[in-house]
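Dear support,

I submitted the protein below through the web form. The confirmation email said the job was done, but the results page showed an empty box. After a refresh the structure appeared. I'm attaching both so you can tell me whether what I see now is the final result or a partial one.
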Amino acid sequence: MERSEKLSGAWNIAHAEELRAQFAAMVEMGGEIVLDLSAVESCDAAALQLLCSLRRTAAERGLRLRLVDSSPAIVETAQALGLAFTEITGEVTGGV
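What the results page shows now:
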């Protein structure tokens, strides 16, 4: 079962718990997780760490995580931290 979510707003330490809970709910539902991150306005290291954790947790549970688009904010934060975006997501489709 595929679920598509379009996420938006500011991804930062102030919203980390909310983002963590949202990702945990996605994992609990199971199936394929498809994220559209094109509307994420800003991203810090804490939020990027949560995205990495989502990827790892999904893989551990045998779930597929797929990104269909990403905002420049996420890509720029990854690059600033010395990471290739694909190292964070594992699989990216389009937009990056």
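Response: this is the final, complete result; the empty box was a page-load delay. Helices lie at 16-29, 45-60, 72-80, 85-89.
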